[in-house]
Predict the structure.
Amino acid sequence: MSVRYLIRLPDPERVRASGEFAFRSQSAEGMASELQDALRGDALFQRWRAIQDDPDSVDPALGVTDAAAVVEGRQHDLHIDLVADTAIAGTVFKHRMRLLAGATWELRDVRTG
């Protein structure tokens, strides 16, 4: 089942400074592309897993991917809105967002269907 996550990045500068795995893009479209890549592939998960104290003990379910995930981004004044359509479960989606944006993002809405 597909889930639509509506995300707000209220301060893109803080997002880009939120950690080792943070978004690098300057534009809403670039950030959408980075999130889409993080949902479709496991490169971000593998990089994060590699720096854990015991990489072999990391739950492999956190590395699930969705090749059909689609993310759109829009710039609105000073914030960025992302809309992600994916079959990835909420806990895994939130983990990916914490890697990419730290605590500087807001989950505005979740819709199924």
The chain has a mean pLDDT of 96. The helical segments are 12-16, 28-40, 43-50, 90-101.
